[in-house]
């Protein structure tokens, strides 16, 4: 089973030195996961100050600076792993420094790949065009509204999403994409006062919940926002756009598709 581990923390809880040490420690966890054939991908995200959120209402894109959720603790990075079960996912989450240092939490979400989604491509490594940046598009859905939406409308939106993926692939912009299982399947891992705390449900309690992601290449923030505005989820919910943080200087981490 593939799992996405979403790492949440307040940015002001980390000094620059602590953040660098955290990333190095995460690389050590990656080494172990790679050796055991469990690793697929990971990346920190750039500061939440770089985020933008896209909604489409009445056919018009509405773009606001900042993340989707106005919360103290924001998404700072992710892991995508191939694990045996939820217990193994909890064990990995419990080793991550944002959890062990009691500065954040890890939300665990099982993933699935619908028919028609192209295989993932690794993040670019080595010399590359500095103008081309990887962006993570986080697709938030109105879960309650989805339950009352006609099945034909949902099928049309899924077909539209797959068409966008194929277009991005043909243009060389596609890296990966996946929906997540419903938020009821989410599990959060924290450490408080030295004790591990595991709770059911997503980390952020909002009307719209994370339903999936796209990882794309774009030559500008504006280009990434245009892609987000074309995602059908922007018409029913929101799409948050976050550039990935380049931590290749610490050490290159291969992505395994």
UniProtKB/TrEMBL annotation:
InterPro entries given in the database record: Dimeric_a/b-barrel, YCII
Family: Belongs to the YciI family.
Domain of life where this protein originates: Bacteria
Protein known as: DGPFAETKE domain protein
Domain YCII-related: 1-111, 135-248
Coiled coil: none
Name of a matching Pfam family: YCII
